[in-house]
Specification:
This protein is α+β, with helices and mostly antiparallel strands and 198 residues long. It has five helices and eight strands. Strands 1, 2, 3, 4, 5, 6, 7 and 8 form an eight-stranded mixed beta sheet that branches. The longest helix has 21 residues, at 175-195. The radius of gyration is 18 Å and the shape is globular. The relative contact order is 0.19.
């Protein structure tokens, strides 16, 4: 699954944690030298309109959901809803309410490319399959990612302990646990990608 980040120009957020924004923009070359073309979402959003809203692509940190409003001349317009019964969602709501897009600076999508055309080193994405959308931060200080890692230290220790216990017991990993492990690996890879210098 690939990930792509876009500047989050939020005008405001309601008391219920609802907001509007763009998950993707069209016909501009991004830092990865990709161009998402208008119509790239047509098939995927004809099959599904509601998607999970995550914090930094972490599958174990859903913070709400978003509904696709549709493609317009700018990009893929979405309506997001933070679930304010979730602690992380309340934290994000507070940051957006207080600082607008100065802290929560972007929206990012997780997707698979279905159709693409290469023009020298530029990739034109003509069709993709959307999986999720995430709220993200781009820290000016690269050391800020260390703090993020510290926040997950306890969970990482638990995963390592679990893996060691399973190995010592000679047990096979169940399909449900295997899925969770793969999701954790994807989340850690996303964190590492965010930490890499551009």
């Amino acid at each position: 699954m690939e990930k792509k980040v876009f500047k989050f120009e939020i005008k405001g957020i309601s008391e219920d944690g609802e907001f509007d924004g763009y998950l993707s923009t069209f016909n501009n070359i991004d830092h990865g030298k990709d161009i998402v073309e208008r119509g790239a979402f047509k098939k995927t959003i004809s099959e599904k309109k509601d998607f999970p809203l995550l914090w930094y692509h972490f599958p174990y940190e859903p913070v709400g959901m978003f509904t696709v409003k549709g493609e317009d001349e700018v990009g893929l317009a979405v309506h997001g809803i933070l679930d304010l019964n979730v602690q992380r969602a309340r934290e994000l709501y507070s940051l957006i309410k207080k600082f607008g897009d100065k802290v929560i600076q972007g929206m990012s999508m997780g997707y698979d490319v279905i159709k693409e055309i290469w023009e020298k080193d530029i990739r034109r994405i003509k069709e993709l399959k959307l999986w999720e959308g995430s709220l993200v931060v781009f820290p000016m200080n690269p050391r800020a990612t260390i703090t993020n890692i510290k926040a997950f230290e306890d969970d990482l220790v638990k995963v390592i302990d679990f893996a060691n216990q399973e190995e010592k017991a000679g047990r096979k990993i169940s399909s449900s646990n295997l899925k969770l492990i793969k999701q954790a690996i994807e989340a850690l890879n996303a964190l590492l990608e965010a930490a890499e210098p551009s």
